[in-house]
């Protein structure tokens, strides 16, 4: 057993980040203020959307998106089964019904053909995650004529047909959780090209000093978090280059040992938030054996949503749960750590 453990995820923080946060603390303006507004402007510019509203988390962003679209009781919202439960939670928060859709076995993104079969007149929104850093089939989904909420929690910086993900949806949501592509600790953002929806979301995110009463939320981001976000956003290009270069090394080194993801796509870029391999043996066994060698891998999704809800009929999600393993991939992974990950994985794949 090695003494040093290589974690599955790790935030990429440096002195510039801590200086930016310290400056806000020293200023005394630590709630939502000018720095949040600046972070919103920078994000809107980066994504190429008309505007952006910062929130306290990705979940808060998705929740506000559903509220702004006036989704409620009796409405159906389509989501993939192979995704974290944040999506199910927000549908439940507004009292709507989740409609689960299977995924594409190769890309892990929503299977558009299955989606088409699941749509009815009650389907009032589709939450479309770009999972693990790879853009989903956005154009196909938008062409269905139902409001699309892009979930870019794992894919900020990914490009689809020449434009950033997050610039396509009726609304698009981001997460800046500690181990996301870039981070504010906890935090989120909604982008949109609709001024009306952006205004609505801005109104819903805070409750104080309002002339009328509607149910509003306290989903604000603080200037402390936004300062970290701005500092991290400046490094995003470097972060993405690093992720892709690690993916290239993994890809060439693991060829023949296990099934690896495709590196290049004709019309979209993969930012490799996750590097997912497919193995033949048991994932639980693999996780145990690999961790004993000091490398922490993870299930890419803890449990598909149809399993929580005791539904059946999601063969691709089921298979993904059985054979997928997520490897450490993040900008601060050193060359030495990359070599250790590869040695341990190759050993596991040849002996299991
Ligand atoms: C695809 C996806 N959507 C939404 C979320 C929720 O984001 P947050 O943890 O910031 O609430 C996550 C977080 O893991 C996610 O991976």
Q: How does the SSE layout of this entry go?
A:
Blueprint: H1 15-27, H2 34-47, E1 51-55, H3 58-68, E2 76-80, H4 86-93, E3 97-101, H5 112-118, E4 123-129, H6 138-142, E5 148-151, E6 159-160, E7 163-164, E8 171-175, E9 188-192, H7 195-204, H8 223-233, H9 236-254, E10 275-278, H10 283-292, H11 305-308, H12 315-323, E11 324-327, H13 335-351
Parallel strand pairs: 2-3, 2-4, 4-5, 5-8
Antiparallel strand pairs: 1-9, 6-7, 8-9, 10-11
Helix pairs in contact: 1-8, 2-8, 3-4, 3-7, 9-13
Bound molecules: pyridoxal-5'-phosphate.
The site of pyridoxal-5'-phosphate has 13 residues, from helix 3.
What does this structure look like?
The chain has 352 residues and is of the alpha/beta class. The protein has 13 helices and eleven strands. The strands form three sheets. The chain has a seven-stranded mixed beta sheet, with helices on both faces. It has a two-stranded antiparallel sheet with strand order 6-7. A two-stranded antiparallel ribbon has the order 10-11. Strand 4, helix 6 (138-142) and strand 5 form a beta-alpha-beta unit. Helix 2 packs parallel to helix 8 (223-233), helix 3 runs parallel beside helix 4 (86-93) and helix 3 packs across helix 7. 48% of the residues are buried. The mean pLDDT is 97.
């Amino acid at each position: 057993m090695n003494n040093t453990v290589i974690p599955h995820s790790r935030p990429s923080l440096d002195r510039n980040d801590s200086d930016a946060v310290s400056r806000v603390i020293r200023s005394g303006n630590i709630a939502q203020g000018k720095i949040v507004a600046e972070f919103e402007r920078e994000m809107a510019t980066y994504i190429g959307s008309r505007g952006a509203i910062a929130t306290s988390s990705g979940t808060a962003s998705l929740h506000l998106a559903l509220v702004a679209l006036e989704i409620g009781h009796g409405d159906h919202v389509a989501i993939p089964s192979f995704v974290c439960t944040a999506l199910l939670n927000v549908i439940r928060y507004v009292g709507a019904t989740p409609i689960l859709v299977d995924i594409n076995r190769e890309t892990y993104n929503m299977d558009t053909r299955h989606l088409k079969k699941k749509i009815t007149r009650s389907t009032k929104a589709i939450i479309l995650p770009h999972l693990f850093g790879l853009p989903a089939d956005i154009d196909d989904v938008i062409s269905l004529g139902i409001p699309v909420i892009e979930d870019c929690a794992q894919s900020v910086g990914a490009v689809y047909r020449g434009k950033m993900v997050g610039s396509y949806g009726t609304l698009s949501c981001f997460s800046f959780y500690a181990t996301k592509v870039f981070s504010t600790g906890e935090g989120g953002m909604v982008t949109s090209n609709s001024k009306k929806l952006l205004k609505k979301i801005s109104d819903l995110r805070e409750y104080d000093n309002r002339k009328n009463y509607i149910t509003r939320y306290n989903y604000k981001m603080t200037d402390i978090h936004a300062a970290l976000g701005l500092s991290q956003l400046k490094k995003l290009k470097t972060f993405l280059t690093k992720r892709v270069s690690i993916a290239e090394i993994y890809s060439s080194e693991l060829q023949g040992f296990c099934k690896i993801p495709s590196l290049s796509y004709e019309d979209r870029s993969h930012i490799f938030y996750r590097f997912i391999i497919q193995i033949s043996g048991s994932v639980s066994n693999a996780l145990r054996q690999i961790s004993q060698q000091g490398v922490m891998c993870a299930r890419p999704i803890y449990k598909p949503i149809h399993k929580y809800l005791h539904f059946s009929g999601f063969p691709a999600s089921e298979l993904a749960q059985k054979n997928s393993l997520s490897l450490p991939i993040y900008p601060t992974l050193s060359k030495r750590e990359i070599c250790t990950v590869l040695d341990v994985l190759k050993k596991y794949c040849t002996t299991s």
